[in-house]
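ugh ok fine here u go
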Amino acid sequence: MHSREPGTRRRVSYAIRLMFAGADREDMQEILFDEQTIAARIRTLAEQISKDYAGKELVMLCILKGAFIFSADLMRRLTIPVTVEFIQAASYGSSRDSSHEIVIKKDIEAGIEGKHLLLADTIIDTGVTMDCLMRTFQARNPASIRAVALLDKKDRRIIEVPVAYLGFEIPDVFVVGYGMDYGERYRNLPYIASLREE
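structure:
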């Protein structure tokens, strides 16, 4: 038994190094959700969305830049017809703290009147961005409008917004990876990790 422990430790250590590949490891606090955990939760969300929107005309609205990986993975798991639109709404810039000022840099190209709209974001933080977008698109007369988010940071909430489909709740830590960034870095990480405090 004891002779196997060093090898086991080496394998675990090597796995951790692989998970942090492409990142500045000293910047990372801990991995909150690995690839397998994220994938399993997305499968569950996709199953519920597919059931709820069966027979309906669904438009998924991906909120750039952060939600592009989440939206793509979620769409591939849906078992119903779906079209996709993209909007870029920014509130973070290069800071860890949200500016609370929403700037829409890119609007959708297609009309959504009479269609079922699902806004997809990776994280709900203050709620300001999602509230702004839901009010903006509600005025365009969709048949319905809902939100799906992979992460919810409730401790930061300023405006309460309804999230119909939610992956995980997280504490008030700054997270990166799986499409989320800090100063445009770390989007390529396949897992979600917290950053060390500055």
